[in-house]
Design brief:
Length: 172
């Protein structure tokens, strides 16, 4: 993973790993868009992909996300299957004003019926020394909150839209 300021966060989805993996490997971009747009609609705001409130001031940006690579591992040394989606995103309208984010969204099977979404990303503030100064004061907080909201929106969307598990299917 790249250098820069690191952001880590995670959330849980109360569905089987295979369901979450299949949904995200089949249409990650569609899920990201639907999750963030539906969250924006629920918040009664314009459909923005990333939104955060800082001191009562709303900051939002439409972003362009790309999935660079998907890696599936049947089991790590602890016997847990994982899937990693390598992501990059930047502002869709003003890429020179916002940082380029390079990240991994990792899916882990926690139990037979629960999956963890783990996010690890890095970004460099834009605008050289001025951007680094703004980032030191408030920019890193905006980036952290927007990434946490992004991951929470995805987890919430998956919890609401994936088919409910039946007792028989959860024992497989």
């Amino acid at each position: 993973m790249g250098k820069g300021r690191e952001i880590l966060c995670y959330d849980y989805v109360n569905h089987r790993y295979a369901q979450v993996r299949d949904a995200l490997t089949h249409d990650a971009l569609g899920i990201f868009q639907a999750a963030t747009k539906s969250a924006a609609a629920r918040a009664q705001s314009v459909a923005a992909a990333l939104r955060v409130d800082v001191g009562g001031l709303g900051v939002e940006a439409d972003i362009k996300i790309s999935v660079k690579q998907v890696e599936e591992h049947s089991a790590d040394p602890m016997g847990v299957p994982t899937t990693r989606l390598e992501l990059e995103w930047e502002s869709a309208t003003a890429p020179s004003m916002f940082p380029l984010m390079k990240a991994e969204l990792c899916l882990y099977a926690l139990t037979a019926t629960e999956t963890q979404l783990g996010f690890q990303g890095y970004y460099e503030p834009p605008l050289g020394p001025l951007g680094k100064a703004v980032n030191a004061v408030v920019g890193h907080r905006i980036a952290e909150v927007s990434v946490h909201r992004f991951v929470n929106d995805i987890a919430d969307y998956l919890r609401r839209t994936l088919p409910a598990q039946t007792r028989a299917s959860s024992q497989q």
